[in-house]
Amino acid sequence: MTKYILSDRSFRDEFLKQIQKIDSNYQFVLEDDLTNSEDWQNVEITIGWKKSWDEKLLYEKTPLKWVQSISAGVDYLPLDQFRNYNIKLTNSSGVHAQAIADHLLAILFMQNRGFFSAIENQRHAKWEMADNYMNPQDLRILIVGTGKIGQRLASYLNFFENQPIGINTNGRTMEDFKNTFPLHQLEEQATMSDVVINILPLTDDTYHLYNKEFFQNMKDSATFINVGRGPSVDTQALHQALQNNEIAFAAIDVFEQEPLPADHPLWSLKNILITPHISGFTPHFQKKFMAIFFDNFTKFIKEGSLTENEVSLASGY
C-alpha cells in the first residue's frame, strides 16, 4: 500500500526522487492530490502543517506518525493533540542559523558604525556624525538562547574578539560563550549588557518575557534585538521604552501581530529598525531543509525513530 508524505509546499524533483530511492512505498503529495477521505487515510508523514488538516489528521488511531515542521519554532502547532495521538514532531533547527546570524551581525555593525543615523541624515542632506562608535570587543552582548542560531552568532562574535554572554534554560556551559546563565537570571544580566538579543522559542515561560519592567531595567544606552518569537515581547512596553528613551535602539524582525499594522506607532519612531520577518530567509533552503528531513526519514523507515531535531511535545522545543 502506498503511504503519503503530505507537504504544505512543493519541492524540486531531485528531492522527490530521493524519497523514492529511500523507500518507494512513500509518495510525496500536496493537499490538492488528496481527492477523497480514503486518500487522507494514507497520510503517514507531513512536511509542514495547515490548520485545515487538524480535523482530517488529528483523531484516535490516526495514520499520521510524524510531522516535520518547516520552521524552528513550533508554538503555532497543535502540540497537545500531537502528544495525545503519539505523533512525533521534528523542527528545522539549524537550517536558518547562518542566515539569522548574518542578519544579527549586520545589525550590530550598522548600529555601532553609525550607518542607521547616516541613512537618516542622507535623506535630509545632513553632513553629521553619529554620537557614538563602538568596536565589537567593547560591547557586552547578551544572547538569550544558545541553540544553533545563538552558537553560530557567538562563533562570529568570537572572530571579532567579542566574547558574548549566554542565557539558556539551566545555565549550562556552551562553546564560544564567555559565561552562560540560567533563564531566571536574565534580568540581572540584561541590566549590565549593551546589547540584548532574543532568540528563544515561544513557551509559557517566554510569553511577554520582555515587558515594561525588563526594559526599564536595561541601560538607557542599550540595544534590544528580537529574532525569536513576536509574543515574547510586550509590544506596548517596547514602544513606551523606545519613546521614553529607556533604551537607545531596537531592531525587531518578529511581532505579536504580523504584518505590523500600518498605523502602529512603532513605525513613527526613529530609534527602531523594523524588518518584515526576514531574518530566517535562507539561500538554498530546500537543500538544507531536505538534508535534515532525509536523515530523519531514513532512520524513521529503518527503526521508527528520528535522528535529528526531535521536539519535546511537553516543553515545546
TrEMBL record:
Stored CDD domains: PGDH_1
Keyword Mitochondrion: no
UniProt domain D-isomer specific 2-hydroxyacid dehydrogenase catalytic: residue ranges: 12-307
Pfam family, one: 2-Hacid_dh
D-isomer specific 2-hydroxyacid dehydrogenase NAD-binding domain mapped to chain residues: 106-279
InterPro entries according to UniProt: D-isomer_2_OHA_DH_cat_dom, D-isomer_DH_NAD-bd, NAD(P)-bd_dom_sf
Keywords (A to Z) from UniProt: NAD, Oxidoreductase
Family stated for the protein in its record: Belongs to the D-isomer specific 2-hydroxyacid dehydrogenase family.
Stated name of the protein: Hydroxyacid dehydrogenase
